[in-house]
Write a structure and sequence with these properties.
Strand 1 and strand 2 form a beta hairpin. This protein is mainly alpha-helical and 145 residues long. Strands 1-2 form a two-stranded antiparallel ribbon. Helix 1 packs across helix 5. The protein has a single domain, classed as Winged helix-like DNA-binding domain superfamily/Winged helix DNA-binding domain (Arc Repressor Mutant, subunit A). Helices cover 61% and strands 7% of the residues. This is Transcriptional regulator SlyA. Keywords: DNA-binding, Transcription, Transcription regulation.
């Protein structure tokens, strides 16, 4: 079933535009909430991915987060400069760089886990439980999960 046609398609009414707008709203609100921690929402995702063991190398993070390796390197450089993570070469394969949070990084990650739910809950406060579950289901369906 086609949902758009050449005649009916309007950029600002399209699902892509709306998804992008929603992402921008959440990013701006999360960035504002994380300001005191001196990290961005993009950096937050890296720290939480490492905390939860979802990735342990720059390549795994790039793949998981859909970020090109050049941008990932720059973001990791910033986090390392802030003493939030460290890099080390794998003893099994010198080409592989392993990432680990520092104790400061673990502290920041713990604070993120207090802040992020508050930001998201504030944005979702007008949603019923059923609406929230439907939104999550539809977004997963849209991205193919």
């Amino acid at each position: 079933m086609d949902h758009y046609s050449k005649e009916s398609f309007m950029l600002t009414q399209g699902v892509g535009f709306t998804l992008c707008t929603a992402r921008n709203v959440i990013t701006a609100e999360m960035d504002a909430a994380l300001k005191d921690l001196d990290i961005s929402s993009q950096q937050m995702v890296i720290l939480l991915s490492l905390t939860r063991g979802a990735a342990t190398t720059p390549f795994e993070l790039s793949k998981l987060l859909g970020i090109d390796t050049g941008l990932m390197t720059r973001m990791l450089d910033k986090l390392e400069t802030k003493s939030l993570l460290g890099r080390s070469r794998s003893v099994d394969d010198r080409r592989v760089v392993n990432l680990a949070l520092t104790s400061k990084g673990e502290d920041v990650a713990a604070q993120i886990q207090e802040i992020a739910p508050q930001v998201l809950n504030a944005r979702l406060k007008t949603f019923t439980r059923a609406e929230f579950e439907t939104l999550c289901h539809l977004l997963r369906k849209f991205v193919g999960d």
